[in-house]
């Protein structure tokens, strides 16, 4: 290991000790990589962090001086030493995931979130623990085109009959500049400070500063979110389900009821017409 690589390793060790109390798992979650990536950096292999990982570190710790991380020059933290949580809403922050972790390596895997964690997230910047993946699901390369992907559970009945509880949705991260390109009523997972993670049909009104969130189940009213409240958007791509709901369930019975009603109306109409004809015949000429 070169002197430069050793110095980077020592600085990363110092960073984790100082900002994450030495907890490498928390460090991995914060920067959005698998724990194995961090393990290879600090274990026997001591892999040199890639440029992508260094960029994630700089993004996850806005109080960190990049010059110190790369070269050891100056102090580790910026002068105020405190995170700038307003950067969550900056243009740079909207170009890659900050709240939802993504898988490292080639685009053949996506983190899988469990129901409890995803449902419980409530954001106020990065001061709360971000949702933690329950594992990683491997998918065909053709299914995961260029981009960052994650798999989310469906909770509750607000999106029935399109999505049911215990379904999973594979979603692609949508950078902020592309929010306005989302077609009206497009299904997506929206991450907001006020409501956490929600699967809804979205309609963005960028000029008016809000997004409308609508459920397929009409018992759930739609609501609007200010764009300043929105942290991330993940566009729906595929559904993963173990259920086999019959979309025509009860349809036969309803059709039979309609047919019976029409038959009754036809019979009634015939009676009315027959009565009118009888009255016409009985009427004196």
UniProtKB/TrEMBL annotation:
<dbReference type="InterPro" id="IPR001387">
    <property type="entry name" value="Cro/C1-type_HTH"/>
</dbReference>
<dbReference type="InterPro" id="IPR019756">
    <property type="entry name" value="Pept_S26A_signal_pept_1_Ser-AS"/>
</dbReference>
<keyword id="KW-0645">Protease</keyword>
<keyword id="KW-0238">DNA-binding</keyword>
<feature type="coiled-coil region">
    <location>
        <begin position="255"/>
        <end position="282"/>
    </location>
</feature>
<protein>
    <recommendedName>
        <fullName>Peptidase S24/S26A/S26B/S26C domain-containing protein</fullName>
    </recommendedName>
</protein>
<dbReference type="InterPro" id="IPR010982">
    <property type="entry name" value="Lambda_DNA-bd_dom_sf"/>
</dbReference>
<feature type="domain" description="Peptidase S24/S26A/S26B/S26C">
    <location>
        <begin position="134"/>
        <end position="228"/>
    </location>
</feature>
<keyword id="KW-0804">Transcription</keyword>
<dbReference type="GO" id="GO:0003677">
    <property type="term" value="F:DNA binding"/>
</dbReference>
<dbReference type="GO" id="GO:0004252">
    <property type="term" value="F:serine-type endopeptidase activity"/>
</dbReference>
<dbReference type="InterPro" id="IPR036286">
    <property type="entry name" value="LexA/Signal_pep-like_sf"/>
</dbReference>
<dbReference type="Pfam" id="PF00717">
    <property type="entry name" value="Peptidase_S24"/>
</dbReference>
<dbReference type="InterPro" id="IPR015927">
    <property type="entry name" value="Peptidase_S24_S26A/B/C"/>
</dbReference>
<keyword id="KW-0805">Transcription regulation</keyword>
<keyword id="KW-0175">Coiled coil</keyword>
<dbReference type="GO" id="GO:0016020">
    <property type="term" value="C:membrane"/>
</dbReference>
<dbReference type="GO" id="GO:0006508">
    <property type="term" value="P:proteolysis"/>
</dbReference>
<keyword id="KW-0378">Hydrolase</keyword>
């Amino acid at each position: 290991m070169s002197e430069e690589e050793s110095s980077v390793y020592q600085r990363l060790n110092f960073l984790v000790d100082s900002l994450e109390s030495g907890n490498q798992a928390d460090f991995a979650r914060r920067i959005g990589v698998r724990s194995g990536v961090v393990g290879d950096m600090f274990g026997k292999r001591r892999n040199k962090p890639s440029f992508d990982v260094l960029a994630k570190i700089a993004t996850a710790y806005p109080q960190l001086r990049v010059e110190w991380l790369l070269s050891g020059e100056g102090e580790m933290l910026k002068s105020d030493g405190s995170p700038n949580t307003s950067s969550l809403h900056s243009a740079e922050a909207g170009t890659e995931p900050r709240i939802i972790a993504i898988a490292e390596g080639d685009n053949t895997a996506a983190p899988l979130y469990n129901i409890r964690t995803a449902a419980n997230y409530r954001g106020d910047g990065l001061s709360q623990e971000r949702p933690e993946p329950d594992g990683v699901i491997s998918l065909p390369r053709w299914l995961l085109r260029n981009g960052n992907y994650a798999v989310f559970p469906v909770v509750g009945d607000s999106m029935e009959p399109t999505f049911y509880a215990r379904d999973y949705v594979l979603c692609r991260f949508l950078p902020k500049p592309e929010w306005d390109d989302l077609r009206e009523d497009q299904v997506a997972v929206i991450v907001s400070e006020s409501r956490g993670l929600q699967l809804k049909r979205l309609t963005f009104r960028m000029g008016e500063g809000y997004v409308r969130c609508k459920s397929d189940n009409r018992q759930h009213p739609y609501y609007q979110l200010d764009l300043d409240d929105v942290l991330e958007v993940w566009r729906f791509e595929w559904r993963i389900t173990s259920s086999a709901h019959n979309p025509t369930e009860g349809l036969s019975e309803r059709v039979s009821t309609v047919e019976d009603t029409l038959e009754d109306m036809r019979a009634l109409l015939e009676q009315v017409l027959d009565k009118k004809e009888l009255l016409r015949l009985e009427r004196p000429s």
